[in-house]
## 1
Amino acid sequence: MKLDVIKLDGSAADSVDLDDAIFGLEPRADILHRVVRWQRAKLQQGTHKVLTKSEVSYSTKKIYRQKGTGGARHGSRKAPIFRKGGIYKGPTPRSHEHELTKKFRALGLKHALSAKAKAGALVIIENADSEGKTSALAKQVKNLGWKRALVIDGAAVNEGFARAAANIDGLDILPSMGANVYDILKRDTLVLTKSAVEALEARLK
C-alpha cells in the first residue's frame, strides 16, 4: 500500500510504502473488541468495597432477650437483615485484569491500524517538528482539518511539538511504543510520522 507523505503546512513531501500485513488487513471487530476490553479491564481500579457485619459501627449488644418475645431470635443490629447493618456478599477490592497473549495484542494493533487505513483516516507526515508555539500548531491543525487526532511519533516525541500540542483540544501525541488499540480507535484521525511507520513495522513484524 502506498500513501502520500505531507508536511505540517499541508504541502506534499514524498510517498511511503506501507506493509500490507500491518496496514492492509480486513479489520475484524471481534479482535478489536477483545483487545480494547483487555485494555480497559487492566485500567479498572477495582477498589469498590462495602462494610461487612464485622466492620459496621454499631453496638454489639443483644437487642432483646432470646425467648419470650414471640419474635425471631437476634443478636446485635449488625446483622445484614437490619437497616444499617453489614452487607452480605458485597463487592470487595479485586483486580479486573485478565490474560491476553502478546501475539493477540499485536494482532489487535495491526487491525486497528488497518481499520484507520481502510477508513481513509490515516495520515502520514514527514516529521512532528515544531518550535513549541501553540498558536502556530493550532493554525496548521485547523488547516489540515484534524478535529480529534492522535499523532504517533518515533521512539521519542519531539519536545517542541509536545509542548505546543499540550493546550490544543482534541490533539494527542504518543511515542511509537505507546501506540495502542484503544487510543487509535478513539480518535477520528490517526497521524503517523515516517519514523513512527518504521518503528511500528519493526515492532509488529
## 2
Amino acid sequence: MSDLLAARTQMALSLGFHILFAVVGIGMPLLMVAAERRWLSRKDPIDLELAKRWSKGTAILFAVGAVSGTVLSFELGLLWPGFMEMAGPLIGMPFSLEGFAFFTEAIFLGIYLYGWDRIPPRAHLMAGVLVALSGVLSGIFVVIANAWMNTPTGFDLVDGVPVNIDPIRALLNPAAFQQTLHMTLAAYAATGFAVAGIHALLLLRDPLNAFHRRALTLGILIGAPAALLQPLSGDISARNVAQYQPAKLAAMEALFETQAGAPLLLGGWPDMETRTVRWGIEIPYGLSLLAHHDPKAVVTGLDQIPRDEWPNVPIVHLAFQVMVGIGTVMAAVAAWALWLMVRRRDPADRRPLLIALAACAPLGFVAIEAGWTVTEVGRQPWIIHGVLRTSEAVTPMPGLAYTLLGFTLLYLFLGVVVAWLLYSQIIRSPRHQEWNRVYTPTVGGPHA
C-alpha cells in the first residue's frame, strides 16, 4: 500500500467514524431541550425521563466524539504537513472558533448533567439551549474549514506560497453557507429519524408504550422538517459546485461531454473506457435546471477537465446517487408523518408509517457518509482545490498500514461500547408499570 493511499484511507476511516458522533452531537441536545421544555410546560414525567436519558446519550457521544476528534487533529499534522503549512494561517480561525464552541459545550453540558435540582429550572433549560447552540456552532466552524478547501479564498498565491492572507475572507468563502446549511440540516434529519425509527421499531412490538410514543413524536418533530428542507439546501449546494468545482459536478452526474440542456442522470454505472453510462435513466434538461436554473444552460463535462484532474468518477457518482436517493425517501416519509400530525393523527397509530420510520432509522447516517464521500473524493486530486494536490501534501511514514489496522480495531471496539451504552442508558424504556398508559381502541388505532 502506497503512503498516499494509506494516509487517505486512515483519514477516511477516522473521519467516517468521527462524523457519526459529530452529527448526533448536533441533533441530540436539541432533542433533550425539547423534552425538558415540554416537561416544564406539561409536568409529564415521561418528558422528564426522556430529557434525562437523552442528556446521558449526549454525554456519551460527546466524550467519544472528543476522542475521535483529537485523533483527527493529530492526523492532520502528522499525515498532511504540507497541507497544514499552507492552510494553517487561513483555516486557523474557524478551527479556533470551533475549539471555543467545543469548550463552551463541555462547560454547559456539565452544568446540565449535574444541575438537576441544583439550579432553577429555567436556568437549567438555558444551559441545555447553550449546549445545543454551541454544538451546532462547533459543527459549522469545522465545515467552514472544509468548505475553504473546496473554494479557497483569502490569499494570493505567489510562487506556490500564500501571501496577503485574509482570515475573514477565508472564513466567508463561497461554499461556507451552502455546506454548513446542508450539513446542519443533515445532522438534524439523521438524528431525528434515528430516534424516531428506533422507537417506531419498539412500538411495533409494544404499541401501547407511552414512553416510545412520546419519543417517536419528538424525533419526528426534529427530523422531519430538516428532511423536507434538505432538497432545497441540496439545490443551493449544486449551483455552488457547478460554479466553483465543475469537475466534481461532472463526476457526480457522470457527465463526460460538455453540453447544453444536460440531462439529469438517475442511477447508472460509468464506463470509463467508453466514457458512457450504462443502465442509467436520463431526465431531459434536468442537470442544466439543477445547476443553473436554466434548461438550456451549458454544463461543463469531464472533456473540459485535464485527465489527471478527474476525480474517481464511479465512486463519486455512486455516492451521489445514494445520497440523493436516501434524501428523497426520507423527505417523502417526513411529509407523510407531518401530514398526519397536522391532521391531529397520532403517527404511532399507523403501522405502515412505523415500518417506514424503522427502515429509515440508519439511512440518514448512510446519506451523510455518502455525502462526505462526494465532497472529499470529488475534490481529488486536490486537497486544496486548484492550489495543492493531495500527493504533494502527504508525508511518508513507515508502518502506516499497521497504524491503520490498529485504528480500525480501536474504532470497532469503541463502536460496540457506544452501541451498548446507548442501548442500556437511552433506548431501553422504563420497566415500571406506570409508564404504560391505558388506551381506548378507536377507528384508526389506539389513542391515549
## 3
Amino acid sequence: MNSIKDNPILKREIMMDHYESPRNFQLIDDNSYRQIHVYSQSCQDDIKLQVLINNDIIEDIRFEGNACVIATASTSIMTELIKGCSIKQAKEIIENYFNMINQKEYGENILKEAVVFESVGRQVNRISCATLSWNGLKQLLNENEES
C-alpha cells in the first residue's frame, strides 16, 4: 500500500480539504487560552493561534486568519495532531515535523496527514508557509513551561 506522501493527487486533495474546510478554525474569547499572532513578512500569511493547556495536556487548539493553502492546511492538520496530546507528545510531533521539512529522518506514523508537506523542504520559498504556525505553537509551549 502506498503512503500518502507517495501519492501526489491524494496529497493535493488533503491540502485542499484542510484549506477549504480548516479544522479548529475559530478563536474563543477565553483568557485561559494562550494566544500568539504569527505572520509572514514574505507572504500574506497572518494567523492567530490559541492553545488551552491543563495539567500538561493540550485540551484545545484553535486558529483564525488569512493564509495561503500551505499555511492554512498545515495549521489545520497541526491542530488535529496536537489536540489532546501531552506537551511532551506535542514536542515530539513538532520535532518530527521540522525534521521532515528539513529533509531529515522523521516518523511518518507520528505525523499522519502532515506528511503531505514532506516535499516542502525542497521548495525554499514555501518553508515559511509550512512552518509558520508550528513555530508559533513551539513558542507557546515554551512560554507555558516558563510560567
## 4
Amino acid sequence: MAKNILVLTGSPRKGGNTDKLADAFTAGARQAGHLVTRYATADKDIKGCSDCKACQANAGVCVISDDFSTLAPLVEQADLVAFVTPLYWFSFPAQLKAAIDRCYSLFLGNRPLKDKECVLIAGCGDSEAAFAGMVKSYQLIAEFLNWRDRGMVLVPELHDKDAVLKTAGLQKAETLGKNIL
C-alpha cells in the first residue's frame, strides 16, 4: 500500500550532502510506490513557537502568520515523516527545529494526528558520537507523538559539500526509502 511520505529537510546549503541524502531516500521511496512530498524548511519563514497557547483555543491552528500554515496540513496528512538534516551543534538546525517546535500546536489543539512513522537521516562533519543529542531528541519526539521509528541513517565525517558521494550513505538512504512498507 502506498504511503504518503513527507521529507522535511533542514539544510540551507543547496545541492549539498543533505540534499543528496534526501534525493536518495526519495528515489528509494518512490521506487517502492510511495508518494513523496519534500519540504525545505530552510527556504521557508517559520518562526519559533511563542508558547502563547492560542492554538488550544483555535482547534490546533497556530496563530503565528508564516509558512507553518503550509506545513501543518502536510504533517497531518503524512503517513511517515522523514527528517533529513545536517547536524548543527549536536542537534537539528534552527530552521528545522522551528518547524518541529511549531508542530506542538497540532498536539495542544487536539488535532488528530493519524498513526505515523518516522525516519532520521543526518550527516555531520564530526564523528558518529556527535549524533547522540540529535538521536535522543528524535527518539523523544517519536515517543511523545507515538510515532514508530522506521530507521536511521547517520553519516559522519562529511567535511566537504560532496563528501557523501564517497560514503555508503546514499545507498543506505535509498535502501531505507525502498524498505518502507
